[in-house]
Design a protein that fits this description.
two-stranded parallel ribbon; single chain; elongated; 9 helices; six-stranded parallel β-sheet; 41% helix; 220 residues; alpha/beta
């Protein structure tokens, strides 16, 4: 089948943000007297929004009040450090440029809070690379609910089945499956191959350039 657009996840797919996320959460945990976690442990904590990230990072049986305080403090700390180490993965910029040369519309759908997602994208990628960016916002359901990718498909005037969805986690593969889009998993991200396959990945990419060997794109 031929495809006419691509929607990307952000963290673990386009950019490696793990260190900045881990460092920021650990700063706040230490401020509150809670144990910090190794960076690698955050690979399985991220992906469902920052509220769930904080819940997973905190010890069990923490009150809702403290959890909300920690979340608010994390937002402040992360805002100042979200671009300390975060950068596009090798080959991503070239892949995006090649897609743009083919006039393939691109978008980002992420569970990262919207302000941070847009700031990172505006800093690390060329202007107007993405036609639409939707992060975590009030009134929008988080992935794997397909609400946000359906909005993007409508914005692109395309059917879901004409769109490739690329991500690095079970949440991303479930989102693509739920939306009827082509689920493509990346092996350079935060989660393992087995997780991607178990959650519906139709294709796996070891490097961004693999996309053009495995998917046929045509202009709208």
């Amino acid at each position: 089948m031929e495809y006419k657009a691509v929607i990307f996840d952000l963290d673990g797919t386009l950019v490696n943000s793990l260190n900045d996320l881990a460092d920021s959460v650990n700063v706040v945990l230490k401020e509150y007297g809670y144990p910090a976690h190794p960076v690698d442990k955050y690979r399985i904590m991220v992906g469902n929004g920052i509220g769930m990230l904080i819940e997973r990072a905190l010890p069990a049986n923490i009150s809702e009040k403290i959890r909300e305080e920690v979340l608010a403090r994390f937002k402040t700390v992360y805002k100042s450090h979200q671009l300390d180490k975060t950068a596009p993965y090798e080959g991503i910029i070239n892949m995006l440029e090649d897609l743009k040369k083919k006039n393939i519309p691109l978008a980002v759908c992420t569970n990262k809070h919207d302000e941070a997602a847009k700031k990172i994208i505006a800093t690390l990628f060329a202007r107007n690379t993405f036609q639409k960016i939707i992060g975590d916002l009030p009134g929008f359901k988080r992935k794997p609910d397909p609400q946000k990718v359906f909005i993007i498909a409508e914005n692109m005037a395309l059917k879901p089945q004409e769109i490739v969805y690329i991500g690095d986690s079970s949440v991303d593969m479930q989102t693509a499956v739920n939306a009827g889009m082509l689920p493509v998993g990346v092996l350079w991200g935060f989660r393992a191959k087995e997780e991607l396959v178990a959650n519906g990945a139709a294709l796996l990419l070891e490097h961004p350039s693999d996309l053009f060997r495995k998917v046929i794109f045509v202009e709208k």
